[in-house]
Specification:
Layout (H helix, E strand, L loop, with lengths): L7 H7 L8 H13 L5 H13 L5 H18 L2 H17 L3 H18 L2 H17 L3 H17 L3 H17 L3 H18 L2 H17 L3 H17 L3 H17 L3 H18 L2 H17 L3 H18 L2 H17 L3 H19 L1 H18 L1 H19 L1 H6 L1 H133 L5 H38 L7 E4 H19 L6 E5 L6 E4 L1 H25 L7 E8 L3 E8 L29 H12 L3 E7 L3 E9 L3
Parallel strand pairs: 2-4
Antiparallel strand pairs: 1-3, 4-5, 5-7, 6-7
Helix pairs in contact: 1-7, 1-9, 2-3, 3-4, 3-5, 4-5, 5-6, 5-7, 6-7, 7-8, 8-9, 8-19, 9-10, 9-11, 10-11, 11-12, 11-13, 12-13, 13-14, 13-15, 14-15, 15-16, 15-17, 16-17, 17-18, 22-23, 22-26, 24-25, 25-26
């Protein structure tokens, strides 16, 4: 009968609470540990808890954390963490097949746990010792510790843990060939774990039941149980259990002669065991692979895996695996007709078999089982003994009992009466309790109704709150629009006032200008008449008449010049009147290029009229693809005129400072920037000092001498661009070199 040697490891796996392998719990504990650096009992417990969480996913780190927890708990004399940390360290040594170190750690854990009355840790330490002797095939010693663990758990009403240990007992019986007893333990444990819905424990019991079916050659039932266990192990990310079930499927598939599947499961199992550092699992899976190759007729491969399994099992002292591997080696050597080595391997197999499952050990196990059952029923035996003594006394004093019969009957009647009275009282109490329960149920229903009404009221309040919020947002938007409208009205009022002043000045200029133009034209006509009279009366040889005609010609030329310049001045005044008229504030599609060119030349000629010696170079770089922009043309014209006037003034000042060794230059450019239109006005004049550059847009601030500037031009221009048109007005300047104003207006969509 082939046995599942690695099922020994199950005993240890059941010795701890189900493996959660939850990264979120480990991450949370790690974060708390990093935040809590103080060496106190809290940190000791965090170290111990994190070691528990990482025991399945990162065994080495789990071991190091348990050692840190043990040292800190020892320094603080914190016995609870010291006991559990020792048990964790013992488990790690067991996984590494370091049995002596594991036994020492479990023994120390028991001693510390007994000092503080920690029965749970005492029981788990008993179980840990049992798994060690189990792996050594010392069944009597293993069973003794298992049953001690069960007794401790039952004494503190931890029946779930007791059922887990009984699962180990079932594994022990299975390995000894008592399959019926083992199956009874496993089925009882599975039923309990299904009631508790502990999936990890359910998977382990399913794995054990699959092993029983496999030994009974019921391979389909075995595979069904194994696959259920495998699905749960993968769902819970329990790599140890997954590796164990895969190893057991190797045996089932090999017995079904499905060798390819068996070898695939074996490869997966070895990789998992190697990643976990569990050498027993690796050795046992190598044994199973050698058995599959042997059955498949691959004697060389069977020898290869059997040799590796034997070497590893001998290294760690895994006796059960040594016994099984010698059997495979004997058959493999025989298949290769190497009979001396086959005979030697067979002899060693027989020797190990006798030492592991001899009749003396079976007897000791049976005795331990009997002792456990005897201890469990000790109270019943005591009661039966006392009952026999009473019967003997009754037999010797039967006559006396007859005389006391009447008294007993009276006593029974009295007791019956008391019972009847108690029954009636209990009935009344029950009726009262039912009535109170009905009242409580009624009050609960009323409370539920009130809660439902409150929830409904809360929903209505939420709706009202949302409505009020929407109304508030609407009012805030309306207020913002009102403020914007007020600002625009103020701006328009300012511009209207400025326009009225400009219009008044223009009208005052236009009246005398009309007189100049009219009288110059009239004077030209008079000169013509005088010249005609002189031609009629004077002879051609009259020298005085000739001189007079020459003077009249010069006078006529002067009058022509007066008329020409008067008409030009009249055009300028008309433009001023046109652009100083009250604006309606309506935005119109406007040719920005034409507007900029017109006001550039208007500003230049205005300055030339005051200073005939001033000359400047005018540069225009106007984007032909700009198109029309929706603006208030009168307002944008005022802004451009103000910027051009400032530019010419700056160049005029610098020219006067440099004594003519300087060429004034004013540049205007336009660009389309997609969502914006850009207008730049740049001069190479005196620039603006850095100390006052941030104040130029403030009302009534000016850098011009007193009487030459009001300080309102740039302030009004800034308001027109930013508030009236939603644009930007920026300035860049360097004293003594240049000044550049940039206007950005929203482009038409």
């Amino acid at each position: 009968m082939k046995t599942s040697a690695f099922l020994l490891a199950l005993g240890f796996l059941l010795a701890v609470t189900p493996l959660l392998a939850q990264s979120t719990a480990a991450d949370s504990l790690n974060t708390l540990l990093e935040q809590h650096q103080q060496a106190d009992t809290v940190r000791a417990k965090l170290l111990n808890d994190l070691a528990y969480e990482l025991r399945g996913t990162d065994p080495e780190k789990s071991y190091k954390l348990a050692q840190q927890a043990l040292r800190l708990a020892g320094e603080l004399n914190y016995k609870p963490v010291e006991a559990t940390a020792l048990r964790r360290i013992g488990s790690h040594h067991y996984q590494k097949a370091n049995y002596e170190a594991a036994l020492r750690a479990f023994e120390q854990a028991q001693q510390v746990a007994r000092q503080i009355g920690d029965s749970t840790t005492v029981a788990w330490a008993f179980n840990g010792k049992g798994t060690i002797y189990h792996s050594q095939s010392d069944y009597p010693q293993a069973l003794q510790y298992y049953l001690q663990a069960v007794q401790v758990f039952e004494s503190v009403d931890k029946h779930k843990e007791a059922a887990s240990i009984m699962g180990n007992v079932g594994v022990l019986y299975k390995e000894m060939g008592e399959l019926k007893s083992a199956l009874t333990y496993f089925q009882r444990g599975l039923k309990l774990q299904e009631q508790l819905n502990d999936k990890n424990e359910i998977a382990r019991f399913l794995n054990n039941i699959g092993g029983i079916y496999s030994d009974q050659r019921q391979y389909n039932h075995a595979e069904s149980a194994y696959r259920r266990a495998l699905d749960i192990a993968r769902e819970k990310s329990n790599k140890q259990l997954e590796a164990l079930v895969l190893r057991n499927l190797v045996e089932v598939k090999g017995n079904q002669k499905k060798y390819a599947q068996a070898l695939s499961y074996g490869t997966q199992s070895v990789k998992l065991y190697q990643s976990l550092g569990e050498r027993e699992g690796v050795a046992d899976t190598y044994y199973q692979l050698s058995s599959v190759h042997l059955n498949a007729g691959h004697a060389d491969s069977a020898l290869y895996y059997a040799s590796r399994a034997l070497a590893l099992a001998q290294e760690i002292g895994f006796k059960r695996n040594i016994h099984n591997t010698y059997h495979v080696l004997a058959e493999a050597y025989a298949a290769k007709k190497n009979f001396p080595q086959a005979y030697e391997a067979q002899q060693k197999y027989i020797a190990y078999k006798d030492s592991l499952v001899g009749e003396d050990k079976k007897s000791m196990v049976a005795a331990l089982k009997f002792q456990y059952e005897l201890d469990k029923k000790q109270s019943q035996i005591t009661v039966l003994t006392k009952d026999k003594q009473l019967q003997a006394e009754r037999a010797s004093s039967q006559r006396q009992q007859k005389y006391a019969l009447l008294a007993v009957l009276v006593l029974v009647a009295l007791i019956a009466g008391i019972l009847v009275w108690n029954n009636r009282k209990q009935k009344k109490t029950n009726d009262l309790l039912r009535k109170q329960k009905a009242e409580i149920d009624e009050q609960a229903q009323r409370l539920q109704q009130l809660i439902a009404e409150l929830n409904k009221s809360n929903e209505e309040l939420q709706v009202q709150k949302q409505t009020i919020t929407k109304q508030r947002d609407h009012l805030e938007q309306a207020l913002a629009e009102l403020k914007s409208a007020q600002e625009q009205l103020v701006q328009r009022e300012k511009m209207a006032s400025l326009g009225e002043v400009t219009a008044g000045i223009a009208h005052e200029i236009q009246n005398p200008l009309n007189f100049v133009n009219n009288f110059s034209e009239l004077s030209v006509e008079l000169v013509q008449e005088i010249k005609e009279e002189l031609q009629q009366e004077a002879s051609p040889k009259n020298g005085k008449a000739v001189a007079l005609n020459e003077l009249l010609d010069e006078l006529e030329q002067n009058l022509d010049r007066i008329t020409q310049h008067g008409k030009r001045a009249n055009c300028i005044v008309k433009d001023m009147l046109q652009h100083s008229g009250n604006s309606t504030g309506d935005k119109q599609p406007t040719d920005i290029n034409a507007l900029a060119d017109e006001f550039l030349r208007l500003s230049y000629h205005g300055l030339r009229a005051k200073d005939k010696n001033f000359n400047a170079k005018l540069i225009t770089d106007l984007d032909p693809a700009l198109g029309k922009v929706k603006v208030v043309p009168q307002e944008i014209g005022r802004v451009l005129l103000n910027l051009f006037n400032n530019a010419f003034y700056a160049t005029q000042q610098l020219k006067s400072q440099l004594n003519g060794q300087y060429q004034p230059e004013v540049r205007v450019s336009t660009r389309s920037l997609g969502e914006q239109v850009e207008i730049r006005v740049r001069d190479n004049g005196a620039g603006i000092p850095a100390t006052v550059a941030g104040k130029i847009f403030q009302p009534f601030f000016t850098t011009k001498p007193t009487g030459q500037g009001t300080g309102l031009g740039l302030s009004l221009s800034y308001d027109i661009i930013t508030k009236g048109h939603g644009g930007e007005l920026k300035v860049e300047t360097k004293e003594g070199e240049y000044t550049e104003f940039t206007i950005c207006l929203p482009a038409p969509q």
